């Protein structure tokens, strides 16, 4: 990748995070709940996107991955996802899960594969993302760590 991506921890109440997620149609109702970590990703001092993590022992839920509309198609989405996978692994996770409605092919190119709901740990299935915020039609995907 021909760029340096800077990753900065962020409060879940951050307005720019909320606006980017809402603009992309991603859930915002649980941003301030405990147990979530969010990050701003920037390149040359300008924000390019955001991403988040929930950790449940050795299982991580990747969430809130968004690249700002005018920054899409330059590799930032891949770099953000890899940054989150690295962070999850450093915090002790050996598997990363996510839910997506429209980007399954994107995540497949990053090593994720779809699984049935009953194949995921209960801790992932009972997250607000899985249990209520994401539509039942959202694909549940997993990949092992490290990336
Ligand atoms: C999905 C998203 C993060 C990708 O970010 P990006 O910076 O454009 O991605 P990259 O530049 O790293 O990768 C681009 C590649 O992914 C593919 N891609 C991008 N979005 C895709 C999608 N929704 N579905 C399938 N493929 C997608 C592109 O076609 C391109 O493929 P190519 O390399 O073969 O040309 C971005 O489109 C986005 O923010 N979408 C809205 C929010 C969202 O859906 N988030 C995921 C759910 S948490």
From TrEMBL:
The residues that cross the membrane are: none
Pfam families named among the record's database cross-references: Acetyltransf_7
Report the superkingdom from the record: Bacteria
Ranges for domain N-acetyltransferase come to 1-146
Q: Which NCBIfam families match?
A: resist_ArsN2 (NF040501)
Instruction: Write down what this protein is called.
Output: GNAT family N-acetyltransferase
């Amino acid at each position: 990748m021909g760029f340096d991506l800077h990753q900065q921890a962020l409060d879940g109440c951050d307005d720019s995070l909320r606006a980017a997620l809402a603009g992309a149609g991603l859930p915002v109702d649980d941003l301030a709940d405990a147990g979530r970590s969010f990050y701003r990703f920037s390149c040359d001092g300008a924000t390019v996107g955001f991403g988040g993590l929930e950790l449940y022992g050795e299982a991580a839920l990747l969430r809130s991955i968004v690249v700002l509309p005018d920054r899409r198609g330059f590799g930032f989405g891949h770099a953000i996802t890899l940054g989150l996978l690295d962070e999850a692994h450093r915090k002790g996770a050996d598997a990363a899960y996510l839910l997506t409605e429209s980007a399954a092919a994107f995540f497949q190119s990053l090593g994720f594969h779809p699984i049935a709901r009953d194949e995921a740990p209960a801790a992932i299935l009972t997250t607000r993302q899985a249990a209520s915020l994401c539509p039942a039609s959202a694909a549940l995907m997993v990949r092992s760590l490290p990336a």
